[in-house]
Amino acid sequence: MAFEGLTERLQKTFNNLRRKGKVTEADLRDTMREIRLALLEADVNFQVVKKFVKTVRDQAVGTDILDGLNPAQQIVKLVNDELVKTMGSTDAPLNKSDKIPTIIMMAGLQGAGKTTTTGKLALKLKNEQHARPLLVAADVYRPAAVDQLVQVGERIDVPVYQEGTDANPVDIVRRGLAQAAENKNDYVFIDTAGRLQIDEKLMQELSDIKSLAHPDEILLVVDAMTGQNAVNTAEGFNNQLDITGVVLTKLDGDTRGGAALSIRAVTGKPIKFVGQGEKMEDLDVFHPDRMASRILGMGDMLTLIEKT
Amino acid sequence: EKSRQSFGKRLTDLFVNFNGVDDDFYDDLEETLIEADVGFETALQISEEVREEVESSRASDPKVISQLIVDKLVALYTRNGRAEDNHLVFAKEGPSVFLFVGVNGVGKTTSIGKLAARFKARGRRVLLAACDTFRAGAIEQLQEWGKRDGVDVVAGKAQSDPAAVAFEAVKKAREEGYDLVLIDTAGRLQNKVNLMKELDKIKRVIEREIPHAPQETLLVLDSTTGQNALTQAKAFLETTDVTGIILTKLDGTAKGGIVLPIRNQLHLSVKYVGLGETVEDLSPFNPEQYVNGLFKDLISNRIEG
Ligand SMILES: Nc1nc2c(ncn2[C@@H]2O[C@H](COP(=O)(O)OP(=O)(O)OP(=O)(O)O)[C@@H](O)[C@H]2O)c(=O)[nH]1
Ligand SMILES: Nc1nc2c(ncn2[C@@H]2O[C@H](COP(=O)(O)OP(=O)(O)OP(=O)(O)O)[C@@H](O)[C@H]2O)c(=O)[nH]1
Ligand SMILES: [Mg+2]
Ligand SMILES: [Mg+2]
User: Fold this and answer.
1) Residue B72 in contact with residue B50, Cβ under 8 Å?
2) What is the Cα–Cα distance from B203 to B205, expressed in whole angstroms?
3) Dihedral angle at the C-alpha atoms of A73, A260, B105, B161, nearest 10 degrees?
4) Which of A144, A225, A259 has its CB closest to that of B137?
5) What predicted TM-score, i.e. pTM, was given to this entire model?
6) Potential cystine with B141: which of A112, A144, A298, B162 (Cβ 3.0-4.6 Å)?
7) ipTM of this model?
8) Which residues, other chains included, contact B230 with Cβ-Cβ below 8 Å and sequence gap of 6+?
9) For the segment A253-276, what is each residue's pLDDT rounded down to a tens digit?
10) Looking at the partner chain, which of B148, B227, B254 has a beta carbon nearest the beta carbon of A229?
């Protein structure tokens, strides 16, 4: 089943409506229902959808949109603008410290893409700013996690600080930072093990690393295919760590990526980058407008509307 | 096991608090299903069917109603199964081959590590094949699992042809009398045509060496995945003729509700569930337990509220 874009959905509702001429309360309800469905199909969390639809409804009622020309397109534009607004209207760059090194800590659920994103970001800084990053291997739990980061480091020609798997992650970070100071690295990335936000012991470990390292940036890495649970994850990590930003991975797939809206809505933290593939170059800055079109399944629809 | 028995009881408690099943209950049921990633349409359908069943049975005894709801939900899961039992199929003689497929980071390699230990404990000679030659550290990860489990691993060079590694593994299994070969593949998103074709090639190589193999092609799904899991299941079913699902990361707060529409529409059943990162954290799928997990919150909220 191919997802139907919001525009097509609304078009149907409004075709019926046009024959009658006047917009009733029931029509408004139908319209909101279509918006709700479109967002749910895109995996936006259902509580977030509720609030969002209410906001849109209030706005639609407050204007004459529904009585005007092309109400379907007007509504889509309204929804789109509100989505863009919610997801943050401007692109958010990586934080940078006044003195070196800038410390960036990665966190997230298992398999989200932390280690891969660490490599991608380090390469980006290296290419764009001639940065000299150091990667610190603080995942001592997942089998061969250290090997993975070491190989990532080799691929992008960036050094990795590692002590194998016998040391405590907090101690590894401490000694990694010492090494970075000695070598005058300007960026330090801390790759942590994946963990559930309900795992108190491992969440405490992240807090301990944070207290020690005082990161300038704590990035929550989230799989773009995540469903309703995105809010629990985001809330859990944000409550524990007060994250500074989000990276959305695996957007090269065909998911609608409603998690972006959910996460932004519950944390208020900016989505800074998106992962677009497995290769080290496959990282882009986040564009709220593109994400909005994607969630709504619109493709180039908006540019069309804009022209009319 | 513990939660499974208490579910019926908890549901019973729920109905003690009110006289019948009211509209609110169906709204809550629907919302609970949506929040579990069942998808809007399936949620609506289930809630309708439960309502019909409750109304047509004219049951008024809370105990009867609650049991009816549990049964209905379990029946909804089981009715569309291709094979009703979740046993894995083995070759009548010679080595069996299980191929593991799925998108990136879902838990393929870990599930292999867990299953290998399970089958080894039952006396089977297990061989692992490291056919993820692409991702950094993937070969080492499988080798580490092989070491933990005490089973042999066939691996090639990083970036080498995965089909060649698969060939080597099944050949070795046949020649050296292994019972079971578990083949790890690189994660791939279902919209990447070339990578999906590569799976097909791996499969053909296996089949050429051992007719009727692979006996199982297991699609690994991450329970935190939303509606895209259905798209995944469709695409992998099409290219690799998936025989069953392993649903991972159910130890988290995600419910993996997407397996309900997958079951309804594609008739694919879940065979195992992943419940953590250690070797013991794998269980055969149990529909009743699963349904229980889906409604845990609904039940407890109702009791509290
Ligand atoms: N297609 C695609 N795959 C990605 C992307 N980012 C990461 N991956 C893949 O997702 C899988 C998991 O990535 P990792 O970087 O190992 O994830 P992690 O969060 O470090 O995992 P753990 O350390 O086990 O918690 C790997 O197969 C990566 O290649 C992306 O943007 N697109
Ligand atoms: N909590 C939890 N974590 C799991 C489970 N299964 C796997 N993981 C973790 O999820 C992450 C990814 O698991 P892998 O086995 O590497 O996944 P994969 O599908 O082989 O990943 P790629 O090969 O990169 O596509 C690792 O950190 C695992 O420890 C599970 O059932 N529960
Ligand atoms: Mg990692
Ligand atoms: Mg793997």
Assistant:
1) yes
2) 5
3) 50
4) A144
5) 0.93
6) A144
7) 0.94
8) A1, B39, B258, B261, B262, B265
9) 999 999 999 999 999 999 999 999
10) B254
